[in-house]
Write a structure and sequence with these properties.
The protein is of the alpha/beta class. The protein has one domain: TIM Barrel, CATH 3.20.20. The protein is built from seven helices and eight strands; from the N terminus they run βαβαβββαβαβαβαα. InterPro entries: Aldolase_TIM, ThiamineP_synth_sf, ThiamineP_synth_TenI.
Length: 194
């Protein structure tokens, strides 16, 4: 798997009224998006499958959160979650929040890790204390050779600092999903981490 600098995580509940998820992701693809993590875990599997196909048709590599879907480029799993065993092995990422999870994911063959929350997050308020740059640096060291994405509270103001602290890249949700101009927000974040 070619690991991009920016992962976009979906959350259609954060979209402004009148905007659809596929259109938002397609606009970000036009702005340079390479990979999206399809969350939308409240949807039945058949609807998530259709959404994965539609996102893939927009020209982006789709990573499905927590479950394997047909035709996806990979899966994004919780640290303790078993890899799906149906079909050929896919690249997989892991969500990590502490040292033990980072070590387990890095030694367990993860293709990449997300480390969160690195900053206060509007998408998941109260989801643990922010790790900050010192916590991110520690996570990168613990992860060794596995690429680390900073997640939680990522925006265009802090993306460069997160990259400079050692993150391979950033994973972003709310700063793009809630933006008036999602493609512009994605482009600015992407430029900050190059």
């Amino acid at each position: 798997m070619n690991v991009p600098r920016v992962l976009l995580l979906t959350d259609r509940s954060q979209l402004p009224a009148g905007r659809d998820l596929v259109g938002t992701v397609a606009a970000c693809v036009d702005a340079g998006l390479d990979a999206v993590v399809l969350r939308e875990l409240d949807l039945p599997e058949d609807q998530r499958q259709r959404l994965a196909r539609a996102l893939g048709a927009a020209g982006v590599a789709v990573l499905s959160a927590r479950t394997r879907l047909d035709g996806v480029a990979g899966v994004h799993l919780a640290t303790a979650q078993a890899r799906p065993d149906e079909g050929p092995p896919l690249p997989h990422g892991r969500s990590c929040h502490d040292d033990a999870e980072i070590r387990a994911a890095a030694s367990g063959g993860a293709s990449y890790l997300t480390i969160s929350p690195v900053a206060a997050s509007a998408s998941k308020p109260g989801y643990g204390p922010a790790l900050g740059l010192p916590g991110l640096r520690r996570a990168v060291t613990l992860a060794g050779h596995v690429p680390v994405f900073a997640l939680g509270g990522v925006d265009e103001q802090n993306a460069a600092d997160l990259r400079n602290a050692g993150a391979h890249g950033v994973a972003v949700m709310g700063a793009v999903m809630r933006a008036d101009d999602p493609a512009g927000a994605f482009r600015r974040i992407s430029q900050a981490v190059r």
